[in-house]
Design a protein that fits this description.
Layout: H1 15-27, H2 31-63, H3 68-116, H4 120-124, H5 128-170, H6 172-179, H7 182-219, H8 221-226, H9 230-255, H10 258-284
């Protein structure tokens, strides 16, 4: 009896192993460019956190200190911060796009070279639509995963760290209200990711079936016309298209289930912050 993996790193086809392979085999060659992109992401995240901090200072200068000169200085600093943020965002997006294009082109070359070295028996066991799907969707998915990983670790994580730092500097107790919504959100999102993984696999195979039917119909159009198979091929591709459409609708429902959850949890967090802030102003002055 086959034993199930006890840890996520034990599964050779699991997400952890695949991500490790993508980083070592695909992303490691571009580590210098990724380092520059990380630095620019840090600048962008710091600018976003700085704009949030300056907003509080502007409110204090306006309603507490009544300092017009201070407001003007902070307004000028805000303009500089947003200019810096825009330049940093442009820089890291262009760098990541160039890396993605290079990885995509390299994977397509490697895949084609690998196919040319296979035997005839290898091609007889598989349909050519599978190779077309792998050459397009398969090679492109590698760059999507790497971009998602880099943006999550660079842009999103650094931005989260910066905003949390500003929250703790302004009011630690109010920041705790925002942290309370994180655990239930993470549990639900974890289940959604598992569900989307299966739907994405079905979407890939369904698209390959459509390409298979289309290719067979076009290449064998003489046979289709000779034996009046137009209706048969039409029914076949209709079934594949309907399956892909249904699967896409399921993916749309599953992927967007997080929106009501996050809005609801965000509403509780904002309401808690308003209650705490209002109580602090009214009761504590």
């Amino acid at each position: 009896m086959t034993e199930l993996p006890t840890k996520i790193t034990d599964d050779p086809s699991g997400a952890a192993i695949l991500i490790r392979r993508l980083i070592t085999e695909q992303g490691a060659a571009y580590w210098r460019r990724y380092l520059i992109a990380f630095l620019l992401m840090g600048v962008s995240a710091g600018a976003t956190a700085g704009s949030a901090w300056i907003l509080g200072q502007v409110i204090n200068k306006t309603y507490v200190d009544k300092d017009v000169r201070g407001i003007a200085l902070l307004s000028g600093a805000t303009v500089l911060i947003f200019i810096l943020k825009g330049a940093a965002t442009y820089g890291h997006q262009v760098i990541l796009s160039k890396i993605s294009n290079a990885i995509l082109a390299n994977n397509q070359r490697r895949l084609f070279a690998k196919l040319m070295n296979e035997s005839v028996a290898f091609f007889s066991e598989r349909h050519s639509s599978e190779f077309l799907a792998r050459l397009t969707s398969g090679a492109y998915s590698v760059t999507q995963v790497l971009n998602l990983l880099i943006n999550a670790l660079g842009r999103d994580l650094l931005l989260l760290f910066g905003l949390v730092t500003v929250m703790l500097m302004q009011d630690p107790y109010m920041a705790l209200l925002g942290f309370l919504v994180a655990p239930p959100a993470m549990l639900v999102l974890r289940k959604l990711v598992k569900r989307i993984k299966g739907l994405a696999h079905n979407q890939f195979t369904g698209t390959a079936d459509i390409l298979e039917t289309m290719q067979e119909s076009l290449q064998g159009i003489r046979t289709v016309k000779a034996f009046t198979l137009e209706q048969t091929m039409g029914e076949r591709i209709d079934a594949s298209i309907a399956a892909v459409e249904g699967n896409a609708n399921k993916m749309a429902r599953v992927s967007n289930r997080s929106s009501p959850l996050m809005e609801t949890l965000g509403g509780f967090a904002v309401a808690g912050g308003l209650m705490y802030g209002g109580y602090s102003v009214v009761a504590m002055g």
